[in-house]
Amino acid sequence: MFTGIVEELGEVVSVDSRGDSSLFRLRGPLVTEGAKHGDSIAVNGVCLTVVETADGEFTADVMAESLKRSSLGALVPGSRVNLERPMALGGRLGGHLVQGHVDGTGTILERVPGEHWEIVKIALPAALRRYVVDKGSITVDGISLTVVEAGQDFFTVSLIPTTLQLTTLGVKRVGDPVNLEVDVLAKYVERLLADGAVRGTGEPVA
Fold this sequence. Notes:
11% of the residues lie in helices and 40% in strands. By secondary structure, it is mainly beta.
């Protein structure tokens, strides 16, 4: 589990394409401190498994499913990425519960600068619309954000200076893709209701 609070702005060192998968080498001195083979690190909101670490860098295999569902396939050497280590049990939950399992991708439609913040409008895939609500939580490229407005085919978020300075959303442009992960609790509730697991009284179905 992650919290969507980005720890480090890392960089793609190399991408080794291997047919339907790729081996990424990424630089992140903070998140690799103490990391070992088999650990998890979220890269732009995608949970990846560490293969090896050395000199502040780590490698990770990215399978076809991750390349298909996320924007990782568009990364090239030099691309900046948001990095986060898993949440430690007993620690503070600064954002919201994030699995690192991307549900789809959106596209930045508009950026409107304010005096001390910026409003970003992002295209919302139809399949994810029912999970996004005003003032709810959503993860964009691994960043836990609060939805300002949830439209039929878009949503907006307000970015504070810290987010603009310390994450990739500070440099993303209109037309750039972003990874989206909706609140997993909403998906569980939907499935339970669809399966008739809860009566109107809140009692379990016998």
